[in-house]
Amino acid sequence: MRRTSTDTRFAYLLVLPVIIFVLGMVAYPIAYSLWLSFQSINLRIGVARFAGVSQYVKVFQDARVPRAFLISIEFSVLTVALCTLLGLGMALVLNESFKGRSFLRVLVLIPWAISEYVTAVLWRMLYNDQFGLFNSILYSLGLIDSYVNLFTDELAVPVVALAYSWHLAPLGAFFLLASLQVIPEDLYKAAKVDGMDSFRRFRHVSLPFLRNALLITIVICSLFSFTTLDMIIMMTGGGPGDSTTTITYLIFKELFVNLRVDYASALSYLLLLCMVAFSVLYFSLLTKRRGR
User: Fold this and answer.
1) Rounded to whole angstroms, how far apart are CA atoms 116 and 99?
2) From residue 103, how far is each of 98, 106, 109, 115, 170 by CA, in Å?
3) Cα 166–Cα 171–Cα 177 angle in degrees, nearest 5
4) pTM above 0.90?
5) Which of 181, 180, 154, 176 is nearest to 221 (CA)?
6) Residue 118: which residues within 8 A CB-CB, separation 6 or more?
7) What is the C-alpha separation between 68 and 74, in angstroms, rounded?
8) Residue 204: DSSP 8-state
9) Partners of 49 in the beta sheet?
10) Least confident of 84-88, 184-188, 236-240
């Protein structure tokens, strides 16, 4: 019994630095930002006073906030749809047996391995209205008479969503590929014997095994796309006008441009509440599926 007690104390001592590190790096900044959201701060003169919930009242009175959330939702929906389709397509290809499959699996990871900053720079070059690849393709197909600017009010969100889905798709592909790998080969053989074509084999054999992986992919892509900032800053800067001013970019602008630390903190907690609500909804859906 003494040895067990000593071992337990020793284990606690080993874990203690990790707990302190987590509290210092995660819990303290979260608590401090929450404190800031209840203050009225003037950084120019260095004055802070308690303001209660006045910052949250300003958030709900700000006409920019609903528009920023709608833009974030539009961007997230487009990104999730493209990411899921691209990821599913890559997973189905990588699940097949062919020469060079291992090399292709490594190659597919490159878009996810590079940073969002590099992704944004690369795709901004591809979208360039003077020498960009997309303009070149559209021009060669006769769809446009001259090179055009793709970053318009109507197209800015979709073109950034396409770029970001290219970055996220490999992550979803490997979640889906992991699920495809556990499907017994006998099921496919039996489906072929029953005369099922490729589409029906996917629908009746592959899809039931992919449902949880698809749900996880959708949730992860949703969280990433709803909170991304680097892509928006590097590709559009919130423009043209405010057509790509997502809620995260609005928070960035309020904090680093307008120096409204208190207001930006309140906006951040509104975003956090939305993310928590979405996560709770996800876990409830996942639990119900497992219960069935």
Assistant:
1) 31
2) 11, 5, 10, 21, 14
3) 115
4) no
5) 176
6) none
7) 10
8) I
9) 40
10) 184-188
The pLDDT-based confidence of 264 (bands split at 50, 70, 90) is very high
Convert 126-159 to b/e letters by CB count within 10 Å (16 or more is b). Answer: bbbeeebebbeeeeeeeeeeebbebbeeeebbeb
Phi, psi of 253 (to 5 degrees): -65, -45
Q: Are 38 and 50 in contact (CB under 8 A)?
A: yes
Residue 46: in which H helix or E strand, if any? none
> DSSP per residue over 226-265, as a string?
HH--HHHHHHTTT-STTTT--HHHHHHIIIIIS--HHHHH
Q: Mind listing the pLDDT tens digit for each residue in 111-154?
A: 999 999 999 999 999 999 888 889 999 889 888 888 889 999 99
**What pLDDT shows up at residue 2?**
47
How does DSSP classify residue 24? Answer: I
- Domains of the chain, CATH where assigned: 58-291 (1.10.3720.10)
Q: Which of 276, 177, 168, 283 lies closest to 225 in space, CA to CA?
A: 168
Strand partners, 39: 50
Decide: 289 and 215 in contact? Cβ < 8 Å. Answer: yes
Q: How confident is the model at residue 10 (pLDDT cuts 50, 70, 90)?
A: low
Cα separation, 267 vs 250, whole angstroms: 9
- Look up residue 58 and give its amino acid: K
pLDDT at 1 over 50: no
Highest mean pLDDT among 94-98, 99-103, 114-118, 182-186: 114-118
Task: Kindly provide the residue ranges of all beta strands, DSSP E only, lying in the chain, ordered along the sequence.
Answer: 39-42, 47-50
The token pair that represents 210 in the structure block: 């992919």
Determine the residue type at 174: F
